Amino acid sequence: MREAVREKLKRIKELYPPQRLARSKERWRRVWTGEPVLDRYPFVFYPAYVDYYNTVYTKEERLMLFLEEFLFRGKLEEDFIPAFFPGCKQGTIPGMLGAGEVVKDGDYTCERIIFKPEDIDNLPEPSIRPGTPAGEWLELERYFLEECEGEIPVHVCDMQGPLDVASQLWGYDNVFLAAYEEEDYYDKLMRKILEAFILLWETQRELCGDCFIPTHMYGWTWVPEEFRGASLSADSMAMLSPDFFRKYYAPYIKMLGERYGNLTVHSCGNFSAVVGELAHIPAVKAVNASQMTPQMLYHAGWPSDRMIVTKEDYNKAEDIFRFIKEKNQRVEFCIRELWPTDGKGLACRPWDWTDEDWQRIRRRNQKVADWVSGWQDAVTARRTEQKEGKR
Predict the structure, then answer these.
(1) Number of other CB atoms surrounding residue 284 within 10 Å
(2) Is the CA virtual torsion 48, 53, 55, 61 positive or negative?
């Protein structure tokens, strides 16, 4: 282990001693299980500086930025669990099926390699080859493990769900039409993608061993042992009707659920139309919504006894915490807009923060801690009222 890394790890251990990590994990565990809160409701802040989805960082830059991130955040009261996250590329699973990566204006996509249903017959068996996005994620994860000698765990890379991968390979319009008009080919493609998903998932799990964290909702989620399974991104859900989701997407999510037991499903956008259908899949224990608040998910039909993983701005957090408490929702809540910004609204580098910046951050940190204190008394009183009303 290099001395620079060794020194940072030593300081990280001092900031995150075993008792601190155990306490945060127990807070999260109780939210997931619906047990009474430990001392306060848990929360976590959005990343201070490191860009989790930056694909330009070198391995060395990514390693050192993450370690610095852990150090800055360790000075605050929150429930962050230090861990590395490889990143996200839309071409990860398509590359396992022969699609070349395409980079345009900083966006990472892939070649379209399906133009007619018969092309699905010619797709190769899923594989992980050097130089492909999947191969690079494994190389990066191995680098994290070796540089830190397994002292910091590693999240799985962002895992795209089968419908989104199919649409990268063929185009959304063609995939949707194929579901109706070429059901056999549609099913064959979706199953082939599931094979690739499972291959990449299992390879990462084998590589990371006890350091493997089976969720890519990085910065927001720590999953208790009894709820661990798999996670997938399903951004296409924002485009789907309940009928299409039920017939043409739910069966494949259920297949993953049968294999892994528990699932966390992510989607960007507003997918209110299919929230109720998603909730009908028993294996889906949590939903991660980038643009939907706990209020929106509640009104769309997401059950209060299943997890929500979400993020929201600091100036809206108090109202959301109040709603969570009122509805007795289970929420892993990430709070944004805590950190200092420059005149352009961009986050300032933590090593440039002034004493005044630190004072402002700590005042906000204390306010959040105040918002989530006294949680148990309120929840107990409400449950008592509910029981009384049923008599």
Answers:
(1) 23
(2) positive
Q: Cβ contacts of residue 288 below 8 Å, gap of 6+?
A: 217, 220, 221, 231, 264, 265, 266, 267, 308, 309, 310
Cα–Cα distances in Å, from 77 out to 73, 368, 373? 8, 9, 13
* Confidence band, pLDDT 50/70/90 cuts, at residue 104: confident
Model confidence pLDDT, tens digit, residues 33-71: 999 999 999 999 998 888 888 778 899 999 999 999 999
- How far is 215 from 211, CA to CA, in rounded Å? 12
First CA to last CA across the chain, in angstroms? Answer: 64
Distances (CA, A) of 212 to 28, 86, 106, 208: 18, 12, 29, 5
pLDDT above 80 (res 106): no
Both tokens of 260, joined, read 């892994």
Reported as a pLDDT band with limits 50, 70 and 90, residue 337 is confident
The pairs formed by 349-354 with CB atoms below 8 angstroms and a separation of 24 or more are 349/49, 350/48, 350/49, 350/68, 350/69, 350/72, 351/68
C-alpha 95 chain-centroid distance: 22
Instruction: Share the mean pLDDT of the chain.
Output: 92
Q: Output the CA angle 334-163-299, nearest 5 degrees.
A: 45
239 pLDDT more than 60: yes
Q: Which residue has the tokens 């709820």?
A: 227
Candidates 3.60.15.10, 3.30.70.270, 3.20.20.210, 3.40.50.2300; correct CATH number of 3-390? 3.20.20.210
- Residue 293 has a pLDDT of 95
What are the boundaries of each domain within the chain? 3-390
Tokens 């951050």, located at residue: 361
- Helix axis angle for 183-208 and 162-170, nearest 10°, is 120
The b-or-e profile of 307-335 (16+ CB within 10 A means b, else e) is bbbbbbebeebeebbeebbeeebbbbbbb
pLDDT class for 384, splitting at 50, 70, 90? low
Q: Specify whether the CB–CB gap between 16 and 78 falls below 8 A.
A: no
